[in-house]
Amino acid sequence: MISDMIKIKNLSVCYKGKKVNAIENVNINIEKGQICTVVGPSGVGKSTILKVLAGIIKNYEGESTIDGEEVNPTIHSIGFIPQNYGLVEWKTIKQNIYLSAKVKNGTKNIDNEFYKKLLDKLNIGKQEKCYPRNLSGGEKQRVSIARAFLLKPKLLLMDEPFSALDVVTREDARRLFLDVWNEHKVTTILVTHDIKEAIYLGQKIIVMSSSPGEIVKCINNDLFGKSYTLESEVIENMAFEIKEMFKRGI
Amino acid sequence: MVLGQNKKNNFLYAFILSFIIWEVVALIINKPIFPEPIYIIKYITQSFMSEMKLHVLYSLRRILIGIFVTVIIGVPIGIIMGYYDKIDSILSPLVYFNYPVPKTALLPIVMLLFGLGESAKIIMIFLITFFPVVVNIRDKVKSIDDEVYYPMYSLGASKFKIIVQIILPGIYETILTSIRISIGTAISILFFTENFGTEYGMGYLIMDSWMRVNYVQMYSAIVVLSLIGLMFFISIDALERIVCPWKDND
């Protein structure tokens, strides 16, 4: 039996100056090497869960542990891809990717061969010396993936990473992400409001409802990685069911 | 190359245009109080080394030290205020209260406290340039998107590393813009302070020539003072191109 790597127990977060909790009594268990998608309408506190796991929000009630230890970014290696990629405009693509290593352990420990492989795989090798403003949305997205994967993180957190892309680029980016992920199988939590994206990318789907954000259902997803064109009917049915859960939850 | 060919041409055109306008106005006024520009050029080329060089060096030294002190003290304070909201909420009222105080009104106090020597002049330059630098830097740091920090927080990056690796390179452009603005202000206040307790400096030379009714020397000193400003601006533009390469990288 595979043990749960991430355990979130009775997690509640209330932002400063707000009367209502952003999330309340959230319980999530995620196995090692699993992709878990958290889906729900905007404002249900999906990103809040990621921020707790990333160590950005420290003031919360409940428990959140990685491998049995309380979340601590200095001990655990956690990659984070924000919605708008979080690239530093005044650094080249190479500097942006190296930045994670620079702030963690220094650049001496960078696996250069792995770095080159990542760049080739993500097809951004030629843009190494460019600045983010010279790149398209899809390219920026791939840079943020490279940056997150470079340190071979234990846990990868992705906050609506494909939402800023157009439909065609988004589909390519998802496929490419799964390609890279399949090679490393890093435990991943991906937050999205796109139900079909949650079905395509999540081995486990957590459905949330709002005010305050609560978990409505956890689904073990057999449609993970399945092509929409081949399974369109089943995927559409599942998407409809999740949409109904949103409504019931609200 | 410090200046592009286009910029060089623009400077030449501006110089020729100023020369023509000055010549026309001088011919219309036709009085010694407004000499023709040719006499000024002649005076500068013939007497710069013997009569003006020492004054220029004194003024340059005061400007450079004054702005250096402002940058050394103002930039860290601006960064800290921009990054730490609590410190900003404590220091902002102090900055806002002191910023509008007319610094020329403080000259007698500064002279009483620091004497008539160099330090009073440098302190006056510091006082007048410090507040705009602090406010500019603080606002720039605040404008950096939080998403840029998230991937670094999730890796356990220390605040010091974030300041050194992300914030500092991101504000080079603002530091240079602040210096650019400070130079104009510094030259104005320098003219004022060099009229007290010194016999060296461009401010002293201008007022001394005026009192001796030597209008050609007075205008020559004014032109040289403007050229000092121009030289500073060109140098900062060149430095900006070196330290902020992302600005021109299309």
Q: Which labels suit this protein?
A:
heterodimer, A: 250 residues, alpha/beta, Rossmann fold, six-stranded mixed beta sheet, 24% strand, globular, B: 250 residues, MetI-like fold, 10 helices, 80% helix, 0% strand
Label the CATH architecture of chain B.
Answer: Orthogonal Bundle
Q: What integer is the average pLDDT of chain B?
A: 93
CATH architectural designation of chain A: 3-Layer(aba) Sandwich
Overall CATH class of chain B: Mainly Alpha
Report how far apart the termini of chain A are. 35 Å
Q: Write down the overall geometry of chain A.
A: globular
Helix content of chain B: over 70%
Find the CATH topology of chain B: MetI-like fold
What does this structure look like?
The complex is a heterodimer of chains A (250) and B (250). Chain A has 250 residues and is α/β, with parallel strands linked by helices. Chain A has one domain (4-249): 3-Layer(aba) Sandwich (Rossmann fold). In chain A, 36% of the residues lie in helices and 24% in strands. Chain A has seven helices and ten strands. Chain A has helices at residues 46-53, 93-104, 112-121, 137-150, 167-184, 195-201, 228-249, and strands at residues 4-13, 23-31, 35-39, 61-66, 69-70, 78-81, 155-159, 187-192, 204-209, 214-220. In chain A, the strands form two sheets. Chain A has a six-stranded mixed beta sheet, sandwiched between helices. In chain A, β4 (61-66) and β5 (69-70) form a beta hairpin. The longest helix of chain A has 22 residues, at 228-249. The relative contact order of chain A is 0.19. Chain B is mostly helical and 250 residues long. Chain B has a single domain (49-247), classed as Orthogonal Bundle (MetI-like fold), CATH 1.10.3720.10. Chain B has helices at 5-29, 37-83, 85-98, 107-114, 118-143, 146-153, 159-170, 172-193, 202-211, 215-243. In chain B, α2 crosses α8. The longest helix of chain B is centred in the first third of the chain and has 47 residues, at 37-83. The model of chain B has no long low-confidence stretch (mean pLDDT 93). Classes of the chains: A alpha/beta (250), B mainly alpha (250).
